Structure formats: structure tokens, C-alpha cells
Amino acid sequence: MRTNLRGGNEDPGFELFFKTNLEEYTDFPIEFENPLPNWLKGTLIRYGMRSVTIRYDPLRSVTIRYDPLRSVTIRYVPLLHEDGVTPDFSEVEKIEALTRGIDNMNVNIYRFERNESKYDYVVLNDFWKAYTIDPLSLETKSSVTAKVPYIKETSPRFGFLNLLSSAHPLPEEGTSSHLTFLSSVSLVPLVKSTISLVRIHSLHQRELIAKWNVDTVPYMHSFSVTSNFAVLFASPFYVNTLKMVKNAEPFESLDWHGDQPTTVYIVNLKTKELTTLETENMFAMHHVNAFELGNHIVVDVSSYPNPDFVGNLQIDILLDPARRNGFDPHALLKRYVIDMESGLVERTHFDSPINVPFSANLDMPVINENYRHKEYCYTYGIVLKHDNMSLSNIALVKKNMCGDTTKDRSWILKGHYPVEPWFVQRLGSVQEDDGFLFVPIIDGKNQRSYIAMLDAKSMELVNKAYLPTIVPYNLHGRFFEDIV
Ligand SMILES: [Fe+2]
């Protein structure tokens, strides 16, 4: 790996990703340079790393402010933060924070059906708790901690931290439900921790599908669902309960075991039967998609040899050119084929072609959601440091998962910094990649943000609209076609 030691002169404006922006605009019209297709209607909501957020705490009726990227934090109510807070909590505040749970729901946005054609819009992190928001004003409405489905009203509620879940629930095929998991960390010696697979009927109504004991709770950010199965890859990145209680910093309380295999949990959604298998040692933040082929389950993930890159995603490192260019941020797309008869897990990895020599290194994968649970061909994502020199050289990438790498494409513009795209299929089209990618991009030289629209077939930029203010780094988003 080569390191760029020339400093940050080559990437003006990259630091805007990580700068606080308090400007707000409501119903501000933006103008695309070219006419938009007349079938295109909807609302794109991005959610992510806002440097300062104001939240209302319903328990104490006070306003709190926090900084999820670890700069100065002003605290009024102790709430758990993924990477801790500055200054540190007192011992009493740590217990309060563990009891109250997480606060920074800055990772993803979903909606759960409330009743016919009515939805609750939720913002999520890797936790059981969620915030509901108004999808038009983006105003935070309430903090919701759904009842844990296996705890009876009369059961004691102490002894477990029912905290960890997924920022990426997945729709259940043929239903209006979603699926997620809940990890319950035991605080009682000799009592096992558990992982549960849970059906989300609605924001408040959850159903237990399966629950199993584990010796240690793995950190899992996402998982996979096919027509009949949920597949969880439990990499050996385990919650250290003592550290968790001592420090009240979830992400700082994880231990990586590079010598242990990844445990694969497969739950049959119909019979609720659990199958436990093993595969290689690896770490994956994002599953791409999964589907069934006869007795086989095919699972595609953006994998890493270990979770070290996560530790480098700190604001002091990201703002320092030498440090940010000095670590390897590259994932590798891998395919795991699980034979449900023999229990064998066969692993292959995807290759990059000469014309896009980094296409298999993408993370933040998105697909045409109409192909969720199905055989599919295309995933889109980003590759940081595509030139192996500078982290800020970010490529938008299209990867053909069906074999012909000559169909891989990328979009790169020096000094322009994209984040995860979102795919919208052309109305009425039956071709998987016939549609557009929408992606916020910072134009570093001009110190402006714009929404780019790329033709997903060619990955050419076909339209863009400059925004009235800078959009700092944001992780995930979603296009809601019926919000207009
Ligand atoms: Fe994610």
C-alpha cells in the first residue's frame, strides 16, 4: 500500500465532510441542470453524521446536544454514544447511560407500516431503540424502545442489556413486515447472552421468530434475508461485557479475535429452525444481497480481513491527510454459498477488471431493491482511496455480480467527494440496471454540495442540482417514491 505523504493540497474541500453545518433550509427549491424524467417523483432522505444535533429527551424535558464525531460534547442527560463522549461520563452517569441507551441515531432511515398505507418513519443505529421522524420536516417526533418480544410483562427486566440490533432491517418477502435481530448481553455470571431474530410487524409490534444462547455477543451491523431464511454472520468481534459496563462506550467495548472463525446462524423463517455453521475469519459491515438456489443459500458481503478500518474512522484521523491516507480502507466483495444439505460454506471472492481495477473493493452497497431476496446482477457503492494513494479519491462503482467484469463501471471526478448512492428504477422498466443513482457529492474546489444523478447503466453523470449549503458526510439514505 502506498502512502501519500504530500499532504492535503490535492483534495481541497475534503474536510467539509467533517465540519459542522448548522444551516437549515425548508422547502428550498433546487434546480437540476437538465429536465427530470416526468415519471420521477418522490423524496430522497439522507441521514448521517451531523456534527451537532439537538434532541428532545422525553424523560427529563431538557434539550441535549451531542457530537457523534467525538469533538466537544455538551451533556445534560447521560445517554449512550457509540464511541463515548468528551468529557468522560462519571461512574454514575455511565450506569445512567447504559440504562437509557443510545442517543445518536445517525446511521439509517426506514419506514415501518403502521396500518394500510400509513407508515412510521424511523432513524436507526445498531441499537434496539429508534427515533421516529417526520419525513417532510425531518423533525424528531419520539424515542421508541419497542417491547422485547420474549420478555413477559411480569418477568424481571434486569440482568440483560437489550441494546444491540441492526441499522439495516430487511423487508420480509411477500409481507409488509421487516426482520431484524436483537442481541441481549447478559450481565449475570453463568447466564448466557442471547441473539434473537425478530419480525417487525410495526414500530411497536415485534414477534420473536427464534432465540438462541451465545457465549459472547458479536457486533453485527447488517445481515441477509432470502425468501425463506435469515442469515447472520457473527464475526469474532465480541462485546466485552466488563469493558461495556466499565466504560459505557459500545464500540470501544469490542474485542477482535483474529484466530477464530465466523459463526453463521441461519434461521428458517417458516419453521423457525436454527442452523449453526462456520466459515473463515473475516469482518463484514454490509451484506449486499442474498438469494436461494435450490438447497443452497447465496450470500454476498463487503468483507474485511478485520475491523481495523473502523477504528480509523475518527475525526482527528480523517482530518489529517497523512494519517487518513495511511490506512487501508478497502473491502473485498465475497460470495458465500451455503449448502443446506451438507452444511458446507463455500467462499469465493469477486475480481476487478482492468478498466475498473477496484470494483470488487466497494462498500456501502446498494441494489435495485426490486431484486432483494432474488438472483441479481448489479450492486453499486463507493471505493475510498481508489488510487491507493489518497483516501479522498472516492469512486462511485457499479459491480456486475453475474460474472462478466467487463460490465463493471465507475464514475470519478477529482476533488469531488461522493457518498453512498441510492438506486431508483425507471418506471415500468424490467431491466435491473435501468434507472438512476442519486448521490450527494461535495464539489471541494467550489466548496459546494450537489445532488448528482447518474445513469445506472453507464455510470455517466446525466444531471445535477447544486444545493444551497454543504451536506457533510452522511452514511445511508432512501428514496421514498410516494412522498411528494
Ligand atoms: Fe450501514
TrEMBL record:
Q: Tell me yes or no: is Zinc-finger among this UniProt entry's keywords.
A: no
Q: Where are the transmembrane segments?
A: none
Q: Which cofactor does it need?
A: Fe(2+)
Task: Reply yes or no: does the keyword Transmembrane helix apply.
Answer: no
Q: Which domain of life is it from?
A: Eukaryota
Which UniProt keywords are given for this protein, alphabetically ordered? Iron, Metal-binding, Oxidoreductase
Enumerate the PANTHER family for this protein.
BETA-CAROTENE DIOXYGENASE, CAROTENOID ISOMEROOXYGENASE
Which family is annotated?
Belongs to the carotenoid oxygenase family.
What is the name listed in the Swiss-Prot or TrEMBL entry for this protein? CCD8A-like protein
